[in-house]
Amino acid sequence: MGISGGGMRRPHQPTFAELFTPKLITVLREGYNLAAFRDDVLAGLTVAIVALPLSMAIAIASGASPDRGLITAVIGGFLVSALGGSRFQIGGPAGAFIVLVAATVSRNGIDGLILATMLSGVFLMVAGYLKLGTYIKFIPYPVTVGFTAGIAVIIFASQIRDLLGLTLTGKEPGELIPKLQVLGSAIHTVNLSAAAITIATIAIILLLKKLRPSWPGILIAVAASAVAAWFFALPVETIGTKFGGIPQSFPLPSLPAISLAKLQAILPDAISFALLGAIESLLSAVVADGMTGRRHRSNCELVAQGIANIGSALFGGICVTGTIARTATNVRAGAHGPISGMLHAVFLLVFILVAAPLASYIPLAALAAVLAVVAWNMAEKHEFATLLRSSWGDAAVLSATFLLTIFRDLTEGIVVGFALGAILFINRMAQTTGIEADKPLVVADKADDANGDRKPYDPGLAADPDVVVYRITGAFFFGAASTIGSVLEGFSDRHKAFVIDFAAVPFLDSTAANAIKGIAEKAKRQGVRVILTGTSQGVRRALLTHGARPPLVKYRADVAVAVSEIKIRRAAAIQETSS
Fold first, then answer.
1. Within this chain, do residues 406 and 520 fall inside the same structural domain, yes or no?
2. Which of 11, 91, 527, 556 is disulfide-compatible with 562, CB 3.0–4.6 A?
3. pLDDT of residue 494
């Protein structure tokens, strides 16, 4: 697999300091003024309003008290933004961790959870300094969709009890099938008031999302449910009745009890926390990059996530990771840089110190409804269906990861899914190698060097400043998608057209197709036309399936046809302007 662009130099190798300089320092060096601060204050307040009910709901669903979720959002959110490698990342408790955290609490208690969180932070820091963040790109797209959808199913199942206000005689099982059996046997104990609050909360969230998307729908829905429960004296369980409310003070840092036996017991949990935290955080950073056109520093981000988890554990918090929904909210709210994330943590701290008593009136059914909506949104239903139709290989990897996450274990699902993806890749590469063995793995586009190693597509194209052409050679798969994507994204808005030649690409998987779609969307925002040439039937089918279709991109037979069309359109535009 190779790629090159006309006139491109060898990429700059960043120094250690460049790799691990927090984006906060970068933003301040660029110049930070009052207008940018106002933008960050507004964005930070917006994210805090979203994070407030979510942090409590996630902590409760994880088997911890709601104040631990808020502590995690305050400490973790501040450290991730202050030290991280992404301008817009928002850290805090995440729904993806609910399954792992609840299982750890069940086996080892809260002290075991805090120790596992701290140890996972150490692992994340080590991974970052060893520059392992670069290798997260090797997680295939079907694996991420599969375990995310599996987590969504488990989260929803874990909330059924509070959604319906069921009364259980014994402990609720952790496994899905036994859990559903126990909940089904208790269906006659449905609390109609709790069910009504659930329906009303979900309805308010969905209606506000449709009618007033800029409003904080989750907070409004939870607040309305709390007012209704208090005003009508509804017989429902609340944060106050179950947890005694939220302490109106912030805890002092302290170390959990540490022993060799305890470390051995929580080691598998700590490894799982670190693995999922790395994947989830870097995926969130990639989402922010796609929304803003920026690029994050993956290894710096891992170090920051590690420090944030250690800091959260010291104050009694739970696992910290980058949160996709809150990060996207931060971007949409107009954040300028990491200071918005730091301010979001400050606003949450103010809530703990000032308004904590009001949280006692929040019904657990309302928070369960919030998590039900979160589970629905994180299921990635469209992507799931697309992968099932994409190919038998992607469908097999997706299904195995999804089912193992639900019925066995999240870590097992990720490991097996990755292994299946690797086996599938080896099989595809074996087939590709037989066909392409006589073709050189060199990519040339429009420059001819002195040794004659590169030859231009077209003599006129080499001097054309308005067009940039790349040719990809070899199988374009998940392992190469990040590297090639970073090169392809290097085009400038000074160009009018961007041609990507697939004539020498025998195979393209879903991760690569998704990367091409993201590149085309970025080009569209910059007013650059994207033309894909030389696509085989299979490659084009994969691209179209994953959204790289007209008018986002154009398809032409070869580079010569694409360049000729560009020249004709440009000549016509010049003639129209002069007339």
1. no
2. 556
3. 62
